[in-house]
Write a structure and sequence with these properties.
- By secondary structure, the protein is α/β, with parallel strands linked by helices.
- Among the domains are: 74 residues, no CATH class; 71 residues, no CATH class; 80 residues.
- The radius of gyration is 40 Å and the shape is elongated.
- It starts with a strand and ends with a strand.
Length: 552
């Protein structure tokens, strides 16, 4: 632009603008001057706007005074790139921050790596991250700040505590994992030998804790992990720690082994070849193993597991543990569908190969080998009809009250017989607990607020020495009340999460089809199958039931 000369000083740092008023053509304003600088080789210099305004003001004075003296003003400068490397707390990450300079030479990847190393970054440096940061830097505008984490350390992984490894399976686990025949095929009739262990049998081994895995910081220091701790090996009833190995648990007596909640014990086991009129009813403090059938109107009551390696017909079984029926169970139902001749009650889970006309209630889950019909089921955990890994059995003409998902191959029948799945009981129980807890939290929060105001007034007053102990006691009571409120608020949050989890977990999963007549309920939210569905899942989403296809 005629009349304007741009040049840097001898230090190659500052940008000077010379204006010769007599050579200018037309008016020169701020925009024109800035465009001239921007379009020059000094376009990426830092420009001082106040200096530009001062130069133009001097130009206007020169024009007014008709002066042709050359005007010179320093309006800009080079500014170097500002690069900072920050090692985060704990020395587990390093962040590189670049403020792009004005008119400065471009940084290279090698420059960034060298700067990181000069800041004691020795391990965990990612050249891929440095390259990505450099690419961002290149397209950034002068003065723009770009940053990224370029190095990461490895936190130490603490060792795991010793682990208890059962050496024998629970009876129910053996049932649900049938043995494989010598031909390599799974034989559903060969459900494994339901046997009891003998005294001296190895039941449980305590595996040693691990030492963990060392970590490292970005500065190259080793982080020492915390070794795992030994878990106490507590012998349950009927077990004893081996005299030759402190980490081995042996059976102290013959019976049925059971491992639950990290505890192994052996139930004293009553073994018989059948329960019928000839043998009489069974009431036993321990486990019961029946190698035969349980016939009509007979009763078995046991504090442990009840395993029937046969068939159950119109009988009653109460178990303090699991109920396992390797064959099937059959009962009769009255016309109103309210009374059943076969009653099964368990504090654990229940497994039946197939059943009809049953009244089932348990605190655990229910697994049916092949088919269940004309029955009532109340359970708190999952229900499977068919193999657990992919249920493909049939479920129809039943009333099911569950608190978790129900999976089968086919729900309902071609005839359209009613099959009801009601998930309301567990949900209502959670709601009742939540409402009670919310009311309690509300009351305690009000009390805490009122007591906090009073304690504030008391502490603002002069307290005589003879009342100091009473004030301290009152303060301690208030602190305890505050801690109680915080604990209850946390429990209220957990209950809300449990309620949400419950709604996500309840569902019907059909791996083959759903026939008309199937009804799914959660209080007044009801879904009814009006047509046939193939491979579908019915779940509770957005406060209503949704049916969607299952592709796998």
């Amino acid at each position: 632009m005629e009349g304007i000369i741009l040049q840097v000083d001898e230090s190659d740092t500052h940008l000077n603008v010379q204006i010769k008023p007599e050579e200018l053509q037309g008016n020169l304003d701020v925009k024109s001057l800035l465009n001239a600088i921007k379009n020059s080789e000094f376009g990426d210099f830092y420009i001082n706007d106040e200096a530009v305004l001062k130069l133009l003001a001097n130009l206007q004075k020169a024009i007014k005074n008709e002066s042709n003296d050359t005007l010179i003003e320093q309006v800009g400068e080079r500014r170097d790139n500002d690069v900072k490397c920050k090692i985060e707390e704990g020395l587990l990450s390093a962040t590189l921050s670049i403020t792009k300079g004005y008119g400065a030479s471009q940084l290279t990847i090698e420059d960034l790596v060298s700067l990181a190393e000069n800041n004691k970054v020795q391990r965990g440096l990612s050249h891929k991250r440095v390259y990505a940061l450099h690419e961002t830097y290149l397209v950034a505008k002068p003065g723009e700040i770009v940053s990224a984490t370029i190095a990461k350390g490895l936190p130490a992984k603490n060792g795991r505590s010793s682990k208890l490894q059962p050496l024998v399976q629970n009876a129910l686990d053996r049932i649900l994992r049938p043995q494989t025949s010598h031909h390599g095929r799974v034989d559903m009739r060969n459900l494994g030998d339901i046997i009891c262990v003998k005294a001296g049998t190895e039941l449980l081994r305590r595996l040693p804790p691990s030492n963990g895995r060392p970590g490292y910081t970005v500065t190259g220091e080793v982080i020492t992990p915390k070794a795992g701790e030994w878990q106490t090996l507590r012998p349950g009833d009927g077990t004893v720690i081996s005299g030759n190995d402190d980490n081995l648990l042996l059976a102290e007596m013959s019976g049925m082994p059971k491992f639950k909640d990290e505890k192994m014990w052996v139930d004293d086991t009553y073994i018989c070849k059948g329960v019928n009129v000839g043998s009489g009813n069974v009431n036993y403090d321990g486990a019961v193993l029946v190698n035969g059938d349980v016939t009509e109107k007979m009763e078995i009551i046991a504090t442990g597991d009840v395993t029937v390696n046969g068939f159950v017909e119109s009988a009653t079984i109460h178990a303090g543990g699991d109920i396992i029926i390797t064959e099937g169970a059959m009962g009769k139902v009255n016309d109103a569908g309210t009374e059943y001749s076969t009653i099964l009650r368990a504090k654990g889970s229940i497994h039946i190969q197939h059943g009809q006309g049953l009244d089932i209630k348990c605190d655990g889950g229910v697994t049916i080998g092949r088919q269940l019909a004309f029955s009532k089921i109340v359970c708190k955990k999952e229900m499977f009809v068919g193999p657990v890994d992919k249920p493909n059995g049939n479920l129809f003409a039943c009333s099911i009250f569950s608190q978790n998902r129900v999976q089968a191959g086919t729900f309902g029948a071609v005839s359209g017989s009613n099959l009801t799945l009601d998930f309301s009981e567990g949900f209502n129980s959670l709601l009742a607990r939540k409402d009670s807890l919310d009311e309690l939290v509300r009351q305690i929060r009000q009390n805490c607020s009122r007591h906090a105001d009073r304690m504030k007034i008391i502490n603002s007053k002069f307290i005589p020495d003879d009342l100091r102990d009473k004030v301290n006691a009152a303060q301690e009571l208030f602190d305890n009340e505050s801690q109680l409120m915080q604990w209850l608020e946390q429990k209220a949050v957990e209950l809300t999460a449990n309620k949400n989890d419950y709604q996500q977990n309840i569902m019907l999963v059909a791996n083959k089809r759903i026939y008309p007549g199937v009804v799914v309920k959660l209080n007044n939210r009801t879904w009814r199958a009006e047509r046939e569905y193939s491979k579908a899942k019915v779940s509770f989403q957005g406060h209503q039931w949704q049916c969607e296809s299952v592709t796998t």
